[in-house]
């Protein structure tokens, strides 16, 4: 499944079947995708994993505050950001270069790269214990201040 990143809104599947927009209620998201996925608790409170979306085998992690969507993490598949293909398990350096060419400046942090103007974060598999510099997650959130604070250290 491919996704399109929509800055300040969230993501939408390329086929238009799923819209994961910030401030959407958990109940609305559950109604839209739970019947076609396996849902489980996430790693932290208010995080939920939606697995095998529409029998695609793909998983997403969604976090909520006050029952409204605030964070999205894609662990498999592809997200298009302003036409740049961000594919999980593909070259991180190539994706960074393509986004830089489009005028976006990342900040490196312990586990990856944050693009403040896009409100996205790309995980670096190598920095997370892997043996290659490939993308291991795509993350976007309504508010990314917590990521920017890490860059000040």
What would a concise description of this structure say?
The chain is α+β, with helices and mostly antiparallel strands and 153 residues long. The chain is built from three helices and 13 strands; from the N terminus they run βββαββββββαββββα.
Any key phrases for this structure?
single chain; eight-stranded antiparallel sheet; 3 helices
Spatial ordering of strands, largest sheet: 4-5-6-7-13-12-11-10
Contiguous low-pLDDT stretches (5 residues minimum) are: none
Number of helical elements? 3
Give the overall form: globular
Please, could you describe this protein's structure?
The protein is of the alpha+beta class. It has a single domain, classed as protein yfey like fold. It has three helices and 13 strands, in the order E-E-E-H-E-E-E-E-E-E-H-E-E-E-E-H. The protein has helices at residues 26-33, 92-101, 145-151; strands at 2-6, 10-13, 19-21, 38-41, 47-51, 60-65, 68-74, 78-81, 84-87, 107-109, 112-115, 120-124, 135-141. The mean pLDDT is 89.
Any chance you could write out the topology, listing elements then pairs?
Elements: E1 2-6, E2 10-13, E3 19-21, H1 26-33, E4 38-41, E5 47-51, E6 60-65, E7 68-74, E8 78-81, E9 84-87, H2 92-101, E10 107-109, E11 112-115, E12 120-124, E13 135-141, H3 145-151
Parallel strand pairs: 1-8
Antiparallel strand pairs: 1-2, 2-3, 4-5, 5-6, 6-7, 7-13, 8-9, 10-11, 11-12, 12-13
């Amino acid at each position: 499944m491919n996704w399109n990143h929509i800055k300040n809104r969230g993501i939408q599947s390329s086929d238009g079947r799923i819209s994961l927009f910030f401030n959407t209620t958990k109940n609305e998201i559950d109604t839209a995708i739970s019947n076609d996925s396996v849902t489980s608790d996430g790693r932290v409170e208010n995080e939920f994993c939606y697995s095998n979306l529409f029998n695609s085998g793909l998983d997403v992690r969604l976090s909520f505050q006050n029952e409204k969507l605030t964070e999205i993490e894609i662990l498999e598949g592809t997200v298009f950001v302003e036409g740049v293909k961000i594919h999980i398990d593909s070259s991180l350096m190539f994706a960074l270069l393509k986004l830089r060419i489009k005028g976006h400046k990342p900040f490196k942090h312990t586990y990856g790269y944050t693009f403040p103007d896009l409100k996205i974060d790309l995980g670096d598999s190598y920095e997370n214990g892997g043996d290659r510099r490939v993308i291991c997650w795509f993350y976007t959130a309504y508010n990314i201040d917590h990521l920017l604070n890490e860059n000040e250290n």
